[in-house]
Design brief:
- With 220 residues, the protein is α+β, with helices and mostly antiparallel strands.
- The chain has 2 domains: 144 residues, no CATH class; 66 residues, no CATH class.
- It contains 10 helices and 7 strands.
- Strands 1, 2, 3, 4, 5, 6 and 7 form a 7-stranded mixed β-sheet that branches.
- Strand 1 and strand 2 form a beta hairpin.
Length: 220
C-alpha cells in the first residue's frame, strides 16, 4: 500500500455524510488561511485537491478515520503528518525547494500531477512531499498549486520579505496561495498587483479597490 493509495482512501472516507461537519471545519480553516473557493470557480478542482493535501497532513485528518484504515494505510499516518511542504521548481527528476533549499528526488507522483510537472518549466509550485523508510517511498501528494510563470520574479522579493519577518513555511506559502487566488479571481489584475510584499499579511487577502480599478493600466 503506497501513500497515494492511502491518501485516496482517506479522501474517500472523508466523503461520508457523517463526517461532513468535521470536513467543513477543516475546509473553513484552510480557506481562512488561503482564500475561499466555490464550485463555480475555474480553479475549484485544483483548490479542492490542495485542501485535501492540507487536511491529511497539517490537519491530521487520517486520525479521524484511523479505525477504518487497514494496517498498510495506517502506517502512512505519521509520515503524512511529517510531510515536507515547499515552494518547488522541477529540475529533471529533482524538486528544488526555493524556500528551504531542500532538494528532493521524488519517485511517486499521480498522473495528473505528473502532467503538470512535465509542463511546468519556469513555474514555482506549492506542494507536499512524503517520505518513508519502511516501505521506502518518496512521493509528491496530489494537490500542488502552480503559480504563473510570470509570477516568479514577483515571488522572489516576497520570499525575502517573509524571511526578514521570520515567517514560517506555512504562513509564507499560505500567503502566496492567497495571492494566487487574488490574481485568478479579479479580472484584469496584473501579476505584480497580486504578488506583492504587503499581501503577506493575512489581513491583505484581497487587493485594494484602487489597485483593482487600475489593473491592466499600470501604476498611476
Amino acid at each position: 500500500m503506497g501513500v497515494l493509495e492511502a491518501v485516496a482512501r482517506m479522501v474517500q472516507l472523508g466523503g461520508a455524510p457523517g463526517r461532513a461537519a468535521a470536513v467543513a471545519t477543516l475546509r473553513a480553516a484552510f480557506e481562512a488561511r488561503t482564500g475561499a473557493f466555490v464550485p463555480d470557480d475555474a480553479w475549484f478542482e485544483e483548490r479542492s485537491r490542495a485542501f485535501w493535501s492540507d487536511a491529511v497532513t497539517t490537519g491530521r485528518f487520517g486520525r479521524q478515520v484511523e479505525g477504518e484504515l487497514d494496517e498498510g494505510e495506517r502506517r502512512w499516518l505519521v509520515p503524512l503528518e511529517r510531510a515536507h511542504r515547499g515552494l518547488f521548481r522541477a529540475e529533471a527528476e529533482v524538486l528544488v525547494d526555493v524556500w528551504s533549499g531542500a532538494e528532493l528526488v521524488v519517485a511517486f507522483v499521480d498522473e495528473s500531477s505528473r502532467a503538470e510537472l512535465d509542463a511546468s518549466a519556469g513555474q514555482l509550485f506549492d506542494a507536499r512531499v512524503v517520505a518513508s523508510q519502511d516501505p521506502f517511498e518518496v512521493a509528491m501528494l496530489p494537490g500542488a498549486v502552480f503559480h504563473p510563470r510570470d509570477a516568479t520574479p514577483c515571488i522572489t522579493p516576497v520570499l525575502a520579505a517573509a524571511r526578514e519577518k521570520h515567517l514560517g513555511t506555512g504562513d509564507t506559502l499560505d500567503a502566496l496561495l492567497r495571492m494566487n487566488r487574488a490574481l485568478r479571481s479579479l479580472s484584469r489584475v496584473k501579476v505584480a498587483y497580486a504578488y506583492r510584499v504587503d499581501a503577506l499579511s493575512p489581513h491583505a487577502a484581497t487587493l485594494p479597490h484602487s489597485a483593482v480599478r487600475r489593473a491592466g493600466k499600470g501604476p498611476t
